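Q: Protein A?
A:
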Amino acid sequence: MAKTICIANQKGGVGKTTTSVNLSAALASLGKRILLIDMDPQGNASSGLGIKRYESQDNNVYHVLIGEKDIQETIQKTKDPNLHVITANPDLVGAEIELVDMPQREYRLKSAIASIGDLYDYVLIDCPPSLGLLTLNALTAADSFLVPLQCEYYALEGLSQLLNTAGLIKKNLNPQLHIEGIVLTMFDTRNNLSHQVVTEIKNHFGDKVFNAIIPRNVRLSEAPSHGQSIFDYDQKSIGATKYYDLAKEVEQRTVAKTTEQRAQQETANV
């Protein structure tokens, strides 16, 4: 069964979509079967993998949420055979309104993913920069959530709100939800403030912070304009190296978690 990871931060401009696209591509390069679900009406994760908006106008995640399409109908292939994507477009803005009166509105995405869980190793969900019904659906569907956090002064602004929301979802909608980790982004080696932020966040969150720190990197910024992940655009860049390191950490944590759960199950059965 696929592990579902929601990539969320209601603060915009923190590298959330960049992380969604490149972590997906990195995990695919490790031989994992990946589905990336774009839940942001801007559709940047979709275009970042080379899928044009008009190519999925009538066949995207919006149609899954409102019940017009089966999720398998909306899955699209990318250049990497291990990486598939379900796209988004501006119609998704309307889903926030249309979902309000729908039954099981918080579980629409979870129910859809359940039907394809055996086809993938990981399902990654790129959330919009908000805590509305779209993000609520994503967190309810997820096993865990990963938070990209920029290495800047206001890095922790809004993080507590996200953690509080996740806590409420865990209590009321998704008891299995837990934090996958915090990935530090936009790190500038020449900036003393960046180093201070890293130190502060690691002191506060401990082993929840991934060791791989994503730097400010021109190649990472250029790749989306070519409709490519960093691995297709420049796999030798420092950005590609760091996202590959992040993917290995995610996989190691997944293996460790699975091993722990099996041990607990065996103990319970004795």
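Q: Protein B?
A:
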Amino acid sequence: MHAPTLCAPAHWRRVDFVSDLHLQAGDQATVALWRRFLQRAPEQRADALFILGDLFEVWIGDDLLDPTEWVDASEDRRFWRACVTELQQLSRQMPIFFLPGNRDFLFGPLALAAAGMQALADPTVLDFLGQRWLLSHGDALCLADADYQRFRAQVRQPRWQQDFLARPLAEREHLARELRRQSQQHQHGRDPALWADVDAATACDWLRQSAAAVLIHGHTHRPGRHVLDLGRTREVLSDWCGHATPARAEYLRLDAAGVQRLTPSP
């Protein structure tokens, strides 16, 4: 495991983290929460925003943003383009760092540039406030889910990605809708507490190799502080869901006071 290090500039005083928003055109309740977060007053914002994967429910290629593809564009394409535009507007006010998840790993250099975001490797060490924080989406650590790990290894291969992105955009949209339907059927009625969690021994090994004490990640939808060993911990980000009761829209903030879990103000 190799984790590059990002050294925070000296003027940074607070940074925010989000993950697992799974934004999609059909879930306007969650989109509204996200837009509330983006539109916070300047005094409520951090010095930088880190998005640790699964910002989008799916991303099927950067050519979604190609203007030549916008004749009779689908609702999904218009939605994705609007989201990228909103990120670009925020990036003029603060740096945004993006680490891909299992749903948006095809978010490539053209989309990053359009959104004004800077790419992060998974994992990456953030050197901030005199401490090293290890950042990851978290899916690579869920080793008990053998089927998913085989799928992950396949789709992260450059050849697989090249072949997928060579398909017509409309075909990729159809495949994405089908995969979303299968995923929803697979998860229906399942208790999230029974989903595969991060392998603690591997997480500790990653932290040891990176000389960090805290791992910050998402993916598992088990928000909170999880104690490992020898003073090591995992700070797990919440997923976002606008139609839950109560709605979930938690973000993590690091500053001199420590780790805080916040929600965007109305």
